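Researcher: Please translate sequence to structure tokens.
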Amino acid sequence: MPAFGMLVVLGLGIVAVSAIAARWLTLARELWAAAFVVLGIAVAWIVNFDLFAEWGLAVRSPALGIVFTGVAVAGAAYFWREILLYFEGLSRKHADEAQTIERTHHLRRAA
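Model: Translation complete:
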């Protein structure tokens, strides 16, 4: 269970770090996935985290275990991003952002 928690927390951390580069990553949806994979593998190498060794699964090489763990962390990051975007949309719907913008910029309704 601690290994799964580590996977989830590292994924959330990658989403937070990639938010810094969001301006360049919004060009294409594939760039988000590529950035998450690169960051996931880098983080797994930096912390030397092999999820498969933690679970007692045999992998041909410890290096491959770390790389596959990085890909799993990237998958967790992508999942976190979608969940956070969902809640952001709910928040906008609940707050009725259009009325807020109209009031702050002193706009009149068009229709």
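Researcher: Any highlights?
Model: The helical segments are 2-18, 22-25, 29-47, 51-54, 62-95, 97-104.
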